[in-house]
Design brief:
The protein has a single domain (about 10-100), classed as YaeB-like fold (2-Layer Sandwich). It has helices at about 10-20, 25-35, 40-50, and strands at about 25, 50, 60, 65-75, 80-85, 90-100. Strand 3 and strand 4 form a beta hairpin. Helices cover about 30% and strands about 35% of the residues. Strands 1, 2, 3, 4, 5 and 6 form a six-stranded mixed beta sheet that branches. The protein contains three helices and six strands. This is DUF4258 domain-containing protein. InterPro entries: DUF4258.
């Protein structure tokens, strides 16, 4: 079985999931967010206003799914964040990274 095709319209799909509340933060993403003082509203803002950082996308062999990178700045303090998402039945936020 080959790799599934990558989403061509990632940012559109991500925005739809965020706007409908149809996504989950993994335990790992929640822990990293707490450690890095990244709030859920900041994650949502970057996911809906950021850009697809295609060169950071990775295929996860274990789960047979693409992990996509979305990058952007927070509003209040303009921190540069990278948010990693994947899809199964829902959208999952895998981790949150502060690039500053």
């Amino acid at each position: 079985m080959g790799r599934p095709k990558k989403l061509d319209n990632l940012l559109e799909v991500v925005s739809e999931h965020v706007e409908s509340g149809d996504y989950l933060l993994t335990t790992h993403a929640q822990q990293r967010g707490a450690q890095r003082a990244i709030t859920r509203p900041e994650v949502e803002f970057v996911l809906t206003h950021g850009w697809h950082e295609k060169r950071k996308d990775r295929f996860d062999e274990t789960y047979q799914a693409w992990n996509y990178a979305v990058r952007g700045k927070t509003v209040a303090d303009e921190r540069e964040l990278r948010i990693i998402v994947t899809f199964d039945d829902d959208m999952l936020v895998v981790t949150v990274i502060d690039l500053n």
